[in-house]
């Protein structure tokens, strides 16, 4: 079918910058699928911090303008080509999309799709695709957390941070969670963080040293920049640091100078140092996993769906916005005031 004849509404990113001016709701051609892809009629789409970076023009993986962002959707499978996809027709699913999620219909590979129950709220389900998959892949596959491990989580109240905290507590870890907002400290406690720290009031390294002489076993860092060097100073021998974001990029100027400045903040190190201290630096990019390791993505997604459906995991609602309020949802995520997952409904 040539879907160019069929139109749908989408929130199109037309220019980089302010959330109020960047998105336009427009009629665009329906997605066209091939081989292993399915089309999902979108009930709600999720926001991720990468969307903010993309809107700011700071995200290399994002498609060129005009583009449709969006990493995760909840909805019904309405079109499929392959046998595996056809089995999903009519089913309510959560899916990781490789962009294209901010639309009435979105396409994705079947490996990024999982069936969900009708009573799972779309805001909770939407958190599972990108944020919980990233957390699960990091905390349960890239590193295996053990009971008693001392774990540090940056941006612990956010979507990925909420998920890592829950997984670390299931494993019996001692969790130190960072935030820049006093208003999020109670949320961190409620979600299981043992030692919430407000980084805008105290230096988190000093604070962690005051808690115990022991260094940290595992660090989840989504901020990058100077925080990486600081983290390495409190990582124990045999410890692991997982790098999965560079939110600090927003604090640097745009363009090559900003990028160089960010890289310099990380500093330089040789792999020999890692071998001598038996430490690991693990990088995570779920887009690469979706592209090159689709079975891994499927395994993680099915696991977090199962753990949520049986009550082991509990994604937290951070806000449900109408499509006309997309710019407000974006500004909220960028403001650093949000917790948990934010979704937008058609
Ligand atoms: N590598 C991957 O495949 C992958 C996949 C998903 C997400 N991520 C990354 O994981 C991180 C969390 O993503 P998310 O979608 O769950 O977002 P989120 O944590 O819900 O929101 C971002 C949070 O980052 C913190 N932050 C730190 N520095 C910031 C800055 N300069 N500007 C704005 N916020 C800053 C803020 O929390 P506080 O103010 O409380 O510190 C903010 O609330 C992001 O860095 C994202 O890029 C990576």
Morphology: globular
Based on the structure given, which CATH architecture of the largest domain is correct? Alpha-Beta Complex
The helix-and-strand class reads alpha/beta
Report the sheet-strand fraction.
25-35%
Largest sheet, strands/sense/barrel: 7 strands, mixed
**What's the helical proportion of residues?**
25-40%
Instruction: Write down how many β-strands occur, each being a DSSP E stretch of 2 or more residues.
Output: 15
CA radius of gyration is 20 Å
How many H/I helical runs? 13
Calculate the mean pLDDT score and round it: 95
CATH topology of the largest domain: Quinone Oxidoreductase, Chain A, domain 1
Give the names of the bound compounds.
Answer: NADP nicotinamide-adenine-dinucleotide phosphate
Q: Could you give a short description of this structure?
A:
It is built from 13 helices and 15 strands. With 346 residues, it is an alpha/beta fold. Helix 8 (226-233) links the parallel strand 11 (216-221) and strand 12.
Describe the structure.
There is one protein chain. With 346 residues, the chain is of the alpha/beta class. It folds into two domains: 3-130 and 288-345, Quinone Oxidoreductase, Chain A, domain 1; 146-284, NAD(P)-binding Rossmann-like Domain (Rossmann fold). It has 13 helices and 15 strands. It has helices spanning 19-22, 49-55, 83-86, 122-142, 159-170, 185-190, 204-211, 226-233, 255-266, 271-277, 286-292, 294-309, 326-334; strands at 7-13, 23-29, 37-46, 72-80, 92-96, 105-109, 113-115, 150-153, 174-179, 195-198, 216-221, 235-243, 280-283, 317-322, 341-345. The strands form three sheets. Strands 3, 4, 5, 6, 7, 14 and 15 form a seven-stranded mixed β-sheet that branches. The longest helix has 21 residues, at 122-142. The radius of gyration is 20 Å and the shape is globular. The protein starts with 6 loop residues before the first strand and ends with a strand. NADP nicotinamide-adenine-dinucleotide phosphate binds at residues 48-50, 130-131, 134, 155, 157-161, 178-181, 184, 222-223, 244-245, 247-248, 250-251, 284-286, 333, 336, 338. Residues 48-50, 130-131, 134, 155, 157-161, 178-181, 184, 222-223, 244-245, 247-248, 250-251, 284-286, 333, 336, 338 line the site of NADP nicotinamide-adenine-dinucleotide phosphate.
């Amino acid at each position: 079918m040539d879907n160019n004849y069929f139109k749908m509404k989408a929130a199109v990113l037309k220019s980089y910058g302010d959330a109020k001016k960047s998105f336009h709701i427009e009629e665009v051609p329906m997605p066209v699928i091939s081989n292993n892809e399915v089309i999902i009629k979108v009930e709600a789409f999720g926001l991720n911090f990468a969307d903010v970076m993309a809107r700011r023009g700071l995200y290399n993986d994002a498609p060129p303008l005009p583009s449709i962002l969006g990493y995760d959707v909840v909805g019904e499978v309405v079109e499929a080509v392959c046998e595996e996809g056809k089995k999903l027709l009519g089913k309510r699913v959560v899916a990781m999309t490789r962009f294209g999620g901010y639309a009435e219909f979105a396409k994705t590979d079947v490996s990024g799709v999982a069936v969900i129950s009708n009573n799972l709220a779309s805001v909770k389900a939407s958190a599972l695709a990108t944020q919980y998959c990233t957390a699960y892949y990091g905390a349960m596959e890239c590193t295996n957390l053990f009971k008693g491990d001392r774990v540090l989580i940056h941006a612990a109240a956010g979507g990925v941070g909420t998920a890592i905290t829950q997984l670390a507590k299931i494993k019996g870890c001692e969790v130190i969670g960072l935030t820049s907002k006093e208003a999020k400290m109670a949320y961190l406690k409620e979600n299981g963080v043992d030692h919430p720290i407000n980084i805008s009031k105290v230096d988190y390294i000093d604070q962690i040293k005051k808690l115990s002489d022991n260094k940290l076993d595992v660090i989840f860092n989504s901020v990058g920049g100077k925080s990486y060097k600081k983290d390495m100073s409190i990582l124990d021998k045999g410890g692991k640091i997982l790098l999965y974001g560079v939110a600090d990029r927003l604090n640097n100027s745009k363009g090559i100078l900003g990028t160089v400045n960010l890289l310099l903040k990380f500093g330089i190190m040789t792999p020999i140092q890692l071998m001598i201290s038996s430490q690991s630096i693990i990088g995570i990019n779920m887009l690469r996993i979706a592209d090159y390791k689709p079975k891994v993505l499927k395994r993680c997604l099915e696991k977090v769906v199962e753990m949520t459906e049986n009550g082991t995991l509990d994604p937290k609602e951070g806000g449900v916005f109408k499509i006309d309020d997309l710019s407000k949802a974006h500004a909220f995520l960028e403001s650093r005031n949000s917790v948990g997952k934010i979704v937008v409904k058609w």
